[in-house]
């Protein structure tokens, strides 16, 4: 043999040896070598609610420490803008659209104001779907869930989905109480019947998690710990609330002391779990994952809400914008994965399944939609994934105001498609994380390409689509004859104009293009002559736009008046229109000129019948 041949063989031997050593150190082969798994899930926690994600108001030292011990993902997404579908995606590694579980359970019934009817989606996680708990149980793990389940009731409870042990999990999405007794109307949260009077729910779940770790420290375990916090109702310990300044009237920032106190308790609970692992010498034998089921609640939904602000992200829970989809994601395995690191790969809820099973060396024949995140976690990883595209399908009307639609994030761009009128919005989210500039008119080819990919994906996963609502009756005339057209019910046309749902706005804003228009459909039962009143705001220097209000062949022209600010609204009666027949009509608002930066902000139009002389 030649010297060159022997050298080549030796190099090959070294490469194989290194590969085998790497495989042996990253993928355990025996059950006794496999790490424990703890998946901690927050409910409605925003992407920027933790201090390690930039919050200046919330105090989260335990979360910050967890991030310092692992990898913090900066572009992590929930599989859906509401809870149950994301939870199903975590459990199965599959897109909610493929599971036909696309809304919170049981979801909201169709209303006459909705143009579309929701599809008949699954009311539980199907038993035939393989879950993370079943995969780990089959590999010899003890399995337990402590907290919110919300994936089905009797017959579909956690014990039927691979969990040996369940505390507090049932079919509901809201706790019966945040303070013990954890009961209401004769029903108690499972396993919490004997809780001490006045105990806080987040503390109780932390204690149950500590107990689970104590009981199973001698064998591999999988603990799913989905907290009810920080979901409504806003309830926190008074002493914790007192640590934060009272909320100011301005709502466009994180300033809710009750929410901050709830988050502080959640932070403490995470710290207790990590401390218990350290106490038993399990820290380096345990993978800890933390994430949220959707973006933060940034709209009014009950007392003491909105809970948070997702700024600079747009909107929040219930919306396909970044504020509704982006979530924190921290993954820690001390001594194995990178520490005090960040990753900007596109990560999704569906990725937890393949990541955890690969990390534990567990093989499973279930086909999943997620990809392993190990390349972004391991010290020698490339920090890149084979996949650079994520998809969403939400064919429902959200309680928070979001409308039926779908979205695709491909590389640096994101397309949102609304199903009511096939409206499409394109954003360069890598540069415009606030989704403030719609590029659809500037890049029509990219819009067509991404829309085609989104449609092909929907076909591939068998996505259920909404259908026309046969009982659709938009903005009906009230008993006193008035017709109210709120900004929240408008259809926007054009590029930049949008409805801004934040409670200090609730307006049609970003009206910076003269060619953008807005319309409402409305239903008349008693025709006649109507006085037209607009509730408009306009910042200094942007007044005097000429605007037409049009119904059929009739129109009323008015000149926008300046106010102290765009959200400083004044009511103005601008003229009269005659609606000659009962039935459905359309009112359009079309600017004729725009001398300033913006046309106006428009909160409402009211048509009031003119009394007969």
Can you characterise this structure?
By secondary structure, this protein is of the alpha+beta class. The protein folds into 3 domains: 36-105 and 130-389, Alkaline Phosphatase, subunit A, CATH 3.40.720; 403-467, Arylsulfatase, C-terminal domain (2-Layer Sandwich), CATH 3.30.1120; 483-609, Galactose-binding domain-like (Jelly Rolls, Sandwich). Helix content is 21%, strand content 23%. The protein has an 8-stranded mixed sheet with strand order 6-5-9-1-10-11-2-12, with helices on both faces. Helix 2 (61-68) crosses helix 8 and helix 6 packs parallel to helix 8 (257-279). The termini are far apart.
Order of strands side by side in the largest beta sheet?
A: 6-5-9-1-10-11-2-12
What is the architecture of the largest domain at the second tier of CATH? Answer: 3-Layer(aba) Sandwich
The radius of gyration over CA amounts to 27 Å
Q: How much is the average pLDDT?
A: 93
Q: Count of helical segments?
A: 12
Low-confidence stretches: 1-27
At the fourth level of CATH, the homologous superfamily of the largest domain is Alkaline Phosphatase, subunit A
| CATH domain topology of the largest domain | Alkaline Phosphatase, subunit A
Total beta strands: 29
- How much of the sequence lies in strands comes to 15-25%
Structural class: alpha+beta
Helix content: 10-25%
Instruction: Just give the CATH class of the largest domain.
Output: Alpha Beta
Shape estimate = elongated
Describe the main β-sheet briefly: 8 strands, mixed
């Amino acid at each position: 043999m030649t010297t060159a041949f022997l050298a080549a063989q030796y190099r090959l031997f070294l490469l194989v040896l290194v590969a085998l050593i790497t495989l042996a150190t990253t993928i355990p082969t025996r059950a006794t070598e496999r790490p424990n798994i703890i998946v901690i899930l927050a409910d409605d926690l925003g992407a920027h609610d933790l201090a390690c994600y930039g919050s200046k108001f919330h105090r989260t030292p335990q979360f910050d420490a967890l991030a310092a011990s692992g990898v913090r993902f900066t572009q992590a997404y929930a599989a859906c803008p509401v809870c149950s579908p994301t939870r199903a995606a975590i459990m199965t590694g599959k897109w909610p659209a493929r599971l036909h579980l696309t809304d919170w359970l049981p979801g909201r019934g169709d209303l006459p104001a909705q143009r579309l009817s929701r599809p008949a989606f699954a009311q539980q996680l199907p038993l035939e779907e393989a879950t993370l708990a079943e995969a780990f149980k089959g590999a010899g793990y003890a399995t337990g869930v402590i907290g919110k389940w919300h994936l089905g009731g009797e017959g579909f409870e956690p014990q039927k989905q691979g969990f040996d042990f369940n505390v507090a999990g049932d079919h509901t999405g809201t706790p019966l109480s945040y303070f013990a007794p954890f009961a209401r109307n004769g029903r108690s949260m499972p396993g919490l019947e004997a809780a001490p009077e006045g105990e806080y729910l987040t503390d109780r779940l932390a204690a149950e998690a500590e107990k689970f770790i104590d009981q199973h420290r001698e064998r591999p375990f999988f603990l799913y710990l989905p907290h009810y916090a920080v979901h409504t109702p806003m309830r926190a310990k008074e002493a914790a609330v007192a640590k934060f300044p009272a909320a100011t009237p301005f709502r466009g920032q994180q300033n809710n002391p009750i929410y901050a106190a709830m988050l502080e308790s959640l932070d403490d609970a995470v710290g207790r779990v990590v401390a218990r692992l350290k106490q038993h010498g399990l820290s380096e034998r345990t993978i800890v994952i933390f994430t949220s089921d959707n973006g933060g609640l940034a709209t009014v939904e009950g007392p003491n809400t909105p809970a948070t602000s997702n700024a600079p992200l747009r909107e929040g829970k219930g919306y396909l914008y970044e504020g509704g989809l982006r979530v924190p994601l921290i993954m820690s395995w001390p001594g194995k994965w990178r520490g005090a690191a960040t990753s900007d790969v596109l990560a999704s809820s569906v990725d937890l399944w393949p990541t955890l099973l690969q990390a534990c060396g567990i093989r499973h024949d279930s086909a999943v939609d997620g990809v392993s995140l190990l390349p972004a976690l391991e010290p020698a990883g490339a920090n890149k994934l084979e996949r650079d595209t994520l998809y969403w399908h939400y064919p429902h009307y959200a309680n928070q105001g979001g409308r039926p639609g779908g979205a695709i994030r491909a590389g640096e761009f994101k397309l949102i498609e609304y199903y009511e009128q096939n409206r499409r919005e394109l954003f360069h989210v890598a540069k415009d994380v606030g989704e403030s500039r719609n590029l659809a008119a500037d890049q029509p080819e990219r819009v067509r390409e991404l829309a085609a990919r989104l449609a092909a994906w929907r076909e591939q996963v068998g996505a259920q689509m909404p259908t026309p609502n046969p009982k659709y009756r938009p903005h009906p005339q009230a008993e006193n004859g008035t017709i109210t057209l709120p900004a929240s019910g408008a259809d926007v046309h054009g590029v930049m104009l949008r409805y801004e749902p934040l409670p200090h706005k609730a307006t049609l804003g970003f009206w910076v293009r003269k060619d953008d228009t807005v319309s409402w459909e409305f239903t008349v039962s008693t025709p006649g002559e109507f006085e037209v009143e607009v509730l408009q705001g306009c910042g200094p220097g942007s007044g005097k736009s000429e605007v037409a209000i049009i119904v059929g062949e009739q129109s009323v022209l008015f000149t926008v008046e300046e106010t102290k600010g765009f959200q400083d609204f004044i009511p103005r009666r601008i003229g009269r229109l005659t609606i000659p027949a009962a039935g459905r009509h359309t009112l359009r608002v079309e600017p004729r000129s725009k001398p300033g930066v913006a046309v106006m902000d428009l909160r409402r139009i009211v048509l009031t019948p003119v009394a007969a002389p």
